[in-house]
Amino acid sequence: MELLRSHLSRVRIPEPTNRIYKTECCISFDTPRSEGGLYVDLNSFIAFGKEGVGWNYEKSGNPVYLHIQQRPKPVPEDRPLKKPTLLAIGVDGGFDHEETEYEETYSIVMLPDYMSLPFPSVELPEKVRLAVDAILIAEGAERKEQLTSWTAEKKKVSAYAMNLQQINNGVVVPPYGWKSCKCDKSDNLWLNLTDGMILCGRRNWDGSGGNNHATEHYEETRYPLAVKLGTITVDLEGADVFSYPEDDTVEDPLLAEHLEFFGIDFSSLHKTEMTTAEKELDQNMNFDWNRIQESGQQVEPLFGPGYTGLVNLGNSCYMASIMQVVFTTRAFISRYYEHQSLKMAFVMAPSDPTVDLNAQLTKLAHGLLSGKYSFPVQEKQEGIPLRMFKTIIAANHHEFSSMRQQDALEFFLHFLDQVERGNAGKPELDPSRSFKFIIEERLQCPSGKVAYNKRSDYILSLTIPLHKATNREQLEAFDKLKAEKNLEGKDIASGEIVRPRVPLEACLDCFSAPEEVHDFYSSALNVKTTAIKTAGLSTFPDYLVLHMQKFVLEEGWVPKKLDVYIDVPDVIDITHMRSKGLQPGEELLPEIGSCEVEPTHFVASEDIVSKLAAMGFNYLHCQKAAINTANAGVEEAMTWLLSHMNDSDIDDPISQNPHTMELQSVDETSVETLISFGFQEEVAKKALKASGGDIEKATDWIFNHPEASSSVDTDLTSSGVQVDGPAVPDGSGRYKLMALVSHIGTSTHCGHYVAHVYKDGRWVIFNDDKVGASIDPPKDMGYLYFFERIDG
């Protein structure tokens, strides 16, 4: 006790703003349930496992810790299983995230001799008691930063509910026996609250659901609200009301009145249909894993080094699948596991290792690869959580820091970008370089002269040529069957569905195939013309990532997922895709001097100028306002004028011709938008000046004027990677398939991601915390394919 009193100056009582870690070690995945428990530093409020606490004492000198241990309580054999009633994890009524109950004990431990004092105890100094009480009461930083609940957001009151116009057309809705007005559907029916039409709901990605008649009715009439029949009971809050213009499930405070208008006595109705949230819950409880998740297969669970699962934090499968693949590559294993110990990463980290990417990547590498956390718990493994890693990798990124599902490709590119930044100045250590390669584009105009441009990237994005399907006869027969079934009003059975099969080779050929570039400005001919563009790879990376463009936009910008199989061989050879650069006899297109790009001259609209002048503004100022807003309108010109009244050059002449000038300034917001697309600031400004400030036209201009991009010092890819700098790897063009990430769902921002990795001579499935020997890897259903170069 005297020793503890001598250390009181190193004990702090946490403030409400302090981040307190008490459930997971900052440098390992140890928890209070691990052997040795967890130690919370009473000065920094950071937690350490049994091994890390000694390192922290050596580094910080902080001697006093709260030791937390949890041991499982005996479970009664007759304990009933609780069925979840709420789409949430770890909350009352939700999924029973912690089936085993634990007994938690506390003590005060002093290093370096690990002297222990019991807690609670009235004999402890008051400062220690207050500090520990505050820690135990506080919400842990882990939970604050990465909530495990995936409860749907509270429904918002619809903006259309309070003033909804209802048409008195004599419709009276019966209490049962409902049927769609436009088809034979008798389930998944929606009552439009304006005109009383009963129509079927949306068609799901797998063909189930309705026939889209309710949605089509809204598009025709713009009647905004509909309620799902079968979800209306005495408790109207549970009714499923959907707002089409708001594209969301909403609350209708006047739902009782709106239902009564059509003769519906909600008090007599009993629930017969699941709400959207309940269907989501049901799908998560009984998820149809299908082939991607190898449903129905007796998958053998795997444990040990390299076979550690990752806990789903709520829509984090996109992150988990990518990290499982990344830490199968030699580059990342070497950088963060074989050549960097946990202690080394901790010593190099700042005082708070939770905000250091190097420390968290090392922690994750050791967690996945050591085997320390991969062991059976009631015949399955619990996996490790990505909470701290997600916090640091998603810092300042609005989407990845949310609990929503994300595109695995976008995350992969973001992750590699962060790794490259984290290894800035140490290119020899940067493992992201193993994915990096150079793409060379060749453009030839009708003059015969050419331009070459280089850019670097981490992925090769491939279009899928459906017309190259190898099973066209079966597809034609399937189309006939569908037509017959539609005439008979019957549904296609899942076993009867035929999908196109496209060879991967055909997708690679599309990348290299010549492509016409229209409105290309030829510096040799000084006119806009059509050029021919081809592309190849200047270097072949250690790991080649192929992105299959399964998500396309149909007419009206409607996203659609291509229901297609890709026949992917185990070994590919892309040697023929290597670019050759400038060839003997080829002549380069003349360079366009900096800022001497084909300017667009703007004539001030006399209508806009006269209207502004009539308001009392200076005529010259009015001309400048019209020109600098590309004659968008009086209001836009006035806004520009009011914000530039005090410009030092506002009274300078426009040019020798007072009605004509080149657009001198560009909107900084438009510049930032183009920069976010991956274009450089100088090129973005040049393009906006040449296209009157229109972002879409500016984008087209950049693609049609590659010489403008090549005139700057560095080129950027869509992910902002510079070409210049340390040399990227290069080698043979032969690759073997080592992993794939597959996706289930209608959009990359919903559904589920799963990884399959070839390791130790067999395919392994990584499905969040479930790791097993794959029996039938879905190699023809991948979204991202990872190939490893074959050397020698």
Task: Provide a short characterization of the protein structure.
Helices cover 26% and strands 20% of the residues.
Task: Explain what the structure shows.
The strands form 7 sheets. Strands 12, 15, 19, 23, 26, 27, 28, 29 and 30 form a 9-stranded mixed sheet that branches. By secondary structure, the chain is α+β, with helices and mostly antiparallel strands. It is built from 22 helices and 30 strands.
Q: What fraction of the residues are assigned to beta strands by DSSP?
A: 15-25%
Secondary structure class reads alpha+beta
Helix tally? 22
pLDDT averaged over residues: 81
Radius of gyration: 32 Å
Main beta-sheet annotation: 9 strands, mixed
What are the low-pLDDT stretches, counting only 5+ consecutive residues below 50? 85-90, 146-153, 277-290, 594-600, 656-664, 710-723
Strand element count? 30
Q: What is the molecular shape? A: globular
Amino-to-carboxy terminus distance: 67 Å
The percent of residues in helical segments reads 25-40%
Task: Summarize the SSE layout with pairings.
Layout: H1 2-6, E1 38-41, E2 47-48, H2 52-60, E3 64-72, E4 102-110, E5 115-119, H3 126-137, H4 141-145, E6 156-157, E7 189-192, E8 198-200, H5 213-221, E9 225-228, E10 241-243, E11 248-251, H6 255-260, H7 276-285, E12 300-301, H8 317-326, H9 330-338, H10 342-348, H11 357-369, H12 387-393, H13 408-422, E13 437-444, E14 450-457, E15 460-462, H14 472-488, E16 501-503, H15 504-512, E17 515-522, E18 527-537, E19 543-548, E20 551-554, E21 558-561, E22 565-567, E23 571-573, E24 601-603, H16 606-614, H17 619-628, H18 634-643, E25 660-662, H19 668-676, H20 681-690, H21 695-704, H22 706-710, E26 734-744, E27 752-759, E28 762-767, E29 770-773, E30 782-789
Parallel strand pairs: 6-11, 15-19, 16-22
Antiparallel strand pairs: 1-2, 1-3, 3-4, 4-5, 7-8, 7-9, 9-10, 10-11, 12-29, 13-14, 13-18, 17-18, 19-30, 20-21, 23-26, 24-25, 26-27, 26-30, 27-28, 28-29
Helix pairs in contact: 9-11, 10-11, 11-12, 16-17, 17-18, 19-20, 20-21
